[in-house]
Specification:
The strands form three sheets. The protein has a five-stranded parallel sheet with strand order 2-7-8-1-9. It has a four-stranded antiparallel sheet with strand order 4-3-5-6. It has a four-stranded mixed sheet with strand order 11-12-10-13. It is α/β, with parallel strands linked by helices. Among the domains are: 117 residues, no CATH class; 93 residues, no CATH class; 122 residues, no CATH class. It is elongated, with a radius of gyration of 30 Å.
Length: 627
């Protein structure tokens, strides 16, 4: 099968990329930096790690890199240039070395009908025993399958060559004699799974069907490197159990699974991947922390290291472009990074003339800003520079008007102009004129990186449309390079499509869209005030009580009146429509949880992509946004 694709940016989920070669070519080794931090702190191994993110955050791809097929491919190609960085990254965290794969990665999808056990007319205790039995059987089968893959054996034909030993003092293994062969273990696990299927599908009373019930997750406890051997030798140094899509389990199943692991406190290696939607709604609003588990929130990690994320996105885009069948072998170099000033020359002249006219009208009533205006008239920069300067002046003058009676104040000199001007004012000035005069604002690779909102799949959703346009240009014989205006148009169109998909993909969609529209309109009103008080703009909110001295987090979170608001905000965080940031503001050490719009929503509402500007809102004010 060919490892080339027409538009590789359209390949999203790792499971859709069939070959390991194709997957590894697209996988960025820099993604492992999130795990390297855990390794350096001594928390990666012999631990329980919860891996959280919203959809498309890269959880499944991260786990796939630790599966035997991926690791064997890397070992066999360790000197190849395209794999060397990934090989070395895994080597640093003791997964592989130059001679062998040291880790047996056992991956289990939690999407296979576990929730159906909740529908059985049996007690909660019985449901738990059946869940543990089914889990144990599938973990054991997955372990044997991975062991065969790691050692180059056929599954299940060659299982006879494996041996399993365990001190069964607790009588966990009731219907199988130990030690046994891998084949015996496979038959035992398969029979348990079949009996549970028969129970679920049968019309007979539950009591008439006998299934081996388990009170322990014996598969995790018993399967150790020293217990599973091939021809008398250990097959690995470490076993890693990876449970993907754990949010697909029922609430009670997730609870008893985590509770069991917590109570056992064993030195097993367990990674549990789950979407943020699996958390309780209130966890997204309070200071959530499952202290008993090590948590890796992928999006939160990249928030701390935005430069690393940008490097990853560059690496991902280069890798994807390199395997296109259309011979557009780069991505970033075909994205215009600067605005084409010649294309907007007439608009810039209009901005200059109209802004000068406004400022001249102000000068009729005061001489306070005469030196500033004279400086702008004498300015000899480009049309773009002069247009931005005049917009800056307009903002700064509006900030001064009304502070005191202008007629009693002395003129302000040019030094004061330079002191008051800063990057935020410049950014606000450029935003104001871009929106008012329809000048391209959303373009460049840097903008695409911001638009990811720390989510790799979201970056790819914009990149796919950009790359499609590059392919189209090449096929037509046009220049491949995408102009600032073309990029701006594509980005705005993708944002509109994402807005329409909320209806189909997100719970509480109608209330969420009402809320986000209210937030967007509020943010625009705050951002586009003539004096740009929150430059470069507002795109978020914090939740502040009316009477802070009487306020406790539970005061409103536990009030049923606010349940619709809790559902909306928590769902927005779970689906990455709102980004939760921790911000220091106000009294020394005062911390706020600020909920910023996902950056594509900023595009949808015509707002800047920078974080920073937010406003405090009470729960009463916020709940009105969904009514």
């Amino acid at each position: 099968m060919s490892n080339k694709f027409r538009n590789p940016f359209k390949l999203r989920a790792s499971e859709k990329i069939e070959s390991e070669v194709g997957f590894l070519r697209l996988f960025s080794p820099h993604v492992l930096e999130a795990l390297s931090n855990e390794y350096q702190s001594g928390k990666l191994w012999e631990n329980i790690l919860l891996i959280h993110s919203s959809p498309g955050g890269g959880k499944s791809s991260l786990l796939r890199a630790f599966e035997p097929a991926s690791l064997i491919t890397l070992l066999n190609n360790k000197s190849a240039t395209e794999y060397r960085a990934l090989f070395n990254a895994l080597k640093k965290i003791e997964v592989i070395n130059n001679e062998k794969v040291k880790l047996l990665g056992v991956s289990l999808q939690c999407t296979r009908n576990y929730q159906i056990l909740e529908e059985l007319n049996i007690s909660e205790a019985q449901k738990k025993r059946l869940f543990f039995s089914l889990f144990n059987s599938r973990i054991m089968i997955a372990t044997l399958r991975s062991a065969c893959k790691l050692k180059g054996k056929k599954f299940p034909e060659d299982l006879q060559e494996f041996s399993f030993e365990y001190n069964n003092e607790g009588n966990f293994f009731k219907s199988i004699g130990l030690p046994c062969t891998g084949k015996d273990l496979y038959i035992w696990a398969s029979n348990i799974e079949k009996e549970i299927y028969r129970l679920v599908d049968s019309f007979l009373p539950i009591k008439d069907i006998t299934v081996e019930g388990h009170d322990e997750l014996i598969s995790i406890l018993a399967v150790r490197p020293e217990n599973l051997t091939l021809n008398g030798e250990k097959i690995c140094s470490r076993i890693l159990f990876m449970f993907d899509d754990a949010h697909k389990l029922s609430i009670s199943q997730r609870k008893i699974f985590k509770q069991y692991l917590l109570e056992k406190r064993s030195d097993c290696n367990v990674w549990i991947s789950e979407r943020l939607e699996a958390l309780e709604a209130k966890d997204h609003l309070g200071s959530f922390n499952e202290r008993d588990f090590q948590i890796l929130n992928l999006e939160n990690f990249w928030k701390k290291y935005p430069a690393k994320l940008s490097k990853i996105l560059q690496n991902i885009s280069d890798k994807r472009a390199s395997i296109s069948t259309e011979e557009v072998t780069s991505f970033q170099e075909y994205l215009t990074e600067n605005i084409n000033e010649e294309n907007i020359k007439e608009k810039l002249k209009l901005i200059i003339s109209q802004t000068q006219e406004k400022l001249d009208n102000t000068a009729k009533y005061t001489n306070k800003f005469d030196e500033w205006l004279n400086y702008s008239y004498a300015f000899e920069g480009s049309l773009l520079e002069k247009a931005v300067l005049l917009k800056e002046l307009e903002i700064l003058i509006n900030r001064n008007i009304g502070k005191s009676q202008l007629s009693l104040e002395f003129p302000m000199d040019v030094n004061e102009l330079h002191n008051k001007n800063n990057a935020d004012v410049t950014n606000a000035a450029y935003l104001f004129m871009s929106i008012e005069y329809e000048i391209p604002y959303y373009f460049s690779f840097k903008t695409l990186s911001k638009l990811s909102s720390y989510n790799i799949e979201q970056f790819l959703s914009f990149g796919a449309e950009m790359f499609e346009e590059m392919i189209s240009n090449k096929m037509k014989g046009d220049e491949i390079m995408l102009s600032d205006s073309k990029q701006n148009k594509i980005i705005e169109n993708v944002a509109k499509k994402k807005w329409k998909r909320i209806d189909m993909e997100v719970p509480y969609a109608k209330d969420i869209q009402k809320f986000l529209k209210s937030l967007g309109n509020f943010s625009k009103k705050q951002t586009f005030q003539p004096n740009a008080p929150y430059a470069p703009g507002v795109s978020g909110f914090s939740i502040k009580p009316k009477k802070q001295n009487l306020f406790k987090e539970s005061y409103w979170i536990d009030n049923p009146i606010y349940e619709p608001l809790i559902d909306v905000i928590s769902t927005c965080v779970a689906y990455n429509l709102l980004e939760k940031h921790t911000v220091l503001q106000g009294k020394k050490g005062q911390v706020w949880d600020v909920y910023y719009m996902n950056r594509w929503l900023c595009v949808f509402f015509g707002l800047p992509l920078s974080h920073g500007g937010f406003r405090h809102k009470t729960p009463d004010e916020l709940i009105k946004w969904i009514k």
